[in-house]
Amino acid sequence: MAAAARRLCHITFHVPVGQPLAQDLQRLFGFQPVAVREANGWRQLALRSGDAVFLVNEGAGTREPLYSLDRCHAVPSATNLCFEVADAAVAARALELRGCSVLVPPVNVGDEQGAATYTVVSSPVGNLSLTLLERTHYHGPFLPGFRPLSSKTGQGWISHIDHLTLACTRGSSPRLMRWFHDCLGFCHLPLSQGEDPDLGLEVTAGSGPGGLRLTALQTPPSSAVPTLVLAESLPGATRSQDQVEQFLAHHRGPGVQHVGLYTPNIMEATEKVTLAGGQLLTPPEAYYQQPGKESQILAAGHEPSRLAQQGILLDGDKGKFLLQIFTKSLFAEDTFFLELIQRQGATGFGQGNIRALWQSVLKEQAARGQEAWQPVRHPAQGLGERRVT
């Protein structure tokens, strides 16, 4: 590998002035602002919940001030993943030898809280760049040059980032998997027994065309880097039936489709998000009426009616279970959403949930005679509507 990633420091988003991502993260998901930087018409706000950190860059210009990179992407988007490394300069040289473009050569920055070194390199995933950060000698709440903010104390309901899902063009997963392995030390994480890394896990859409190909990647257990999931569409489905193809069209290329936020109590977190006005995807009733679903939920120690009422998905067996729920898009352009996830011993990604939910969606589409499923909307105002095309 060229650069061993030790941990994911933060995820950077670029949004236009007035887009309420920062406010939504605070109001709906309990994130607290920890540092801010304002320069050249841009406002950069770092928000934290547990170990999950998002940097929201809000501005009207084309050149963002932290890394001095041109930002020409036309829609709101997650644009950068910041990984901590042992030596930023060494990592940059190694990645450059592997063909990566070094967008920002190693830069030393500091303030009264200490010093840090960072470099920015390109990635093979659409508009996504990677920051490699060396900050052993920095003791501030975020990065040099940011003004610390006093935030509320107390434990939020999000503890860390569990995984990130990258929506990719069809057939690109093997190439991307090799890149993340060779450059950052990620290895294949099988989602099914005997899974071929080049094929990943195929989640078909029942008897209809299309489906998903999922390939999971992880770093060694000694690191604190979330799992990456590569998602691409299988041949056959129309764009209106295919969530990945819809993302690629709205986002105008590959990118970060969603982030899984880990919570130790998904029912409490879901209730708080809903009461705050968040809009969550509600699966069709058929999902909870599948044979064996009630006994599966009971075996996991939960009440079927409560999970159904809140729209929480559950998958697993043999004492290992996974609970998930998804928000609607945080952007009107339908280019990013969040997932709340709780694990009870499970290490996978709810492939049973994906398959069952997909099949239920197709049944709902057929019953209504519609091209695409429009999820049930919670009555409170909040996240942007999900458009169906």
Automatic annotation (TrEMBL):
Q: Please list the cofactors this protein needs.
A: Fe cation
- Does Metal-binding count among this protein's keywords? yes
Details of cofactor binding: Binds 1 Fe cation per subunit.
CDD domains assigned: HPPD_C_like (cd07250), HPPD_N_like (cd08342)
Q: Which domain of life is it from?
A: Eukaryota
GO molecular-function terms, A-Z: 4-hydroxyphenylpyruvate dioxygenase activity; metal ion binding
Q: Which UniProt keywords apply?
A: Dioxygenase, Iron, Metal-binding, Oxidoreductase, Repeat
What are the start and end residues of every segment in region (Disordered)? 369-389
The record's listing under InterPro entries reads: 4OHPhenylPyrv_dOase, 4OHPhenylPyrv_dOase_C, 4OHPhenylPyrv_dOase_N, Glyas_Bleomycin-R_OHBP_Dase, VOC_core
Amino acids binding Fe cation:
163, 258, 339
Residue ranges of the VOC domain?
A: 7-135, 160-328
GO process terms (BP): aromatic amino acid metabolic process
Family, according to the entry, reads as follows: Belongs to the 4HPPD family.
Q: Fetch the PANTHER family from UniProt.
A: 4-HYDROXYPHENYLPYRUVATE DIOXYGENASE, 4-HYDROXYPHENYLPYRUVATE DIOXYGENASE-LIKE PROTEIN
Task: Please give the name of this protein.
Answer: 4-hydroxyphenylpyruvate dioxygenase
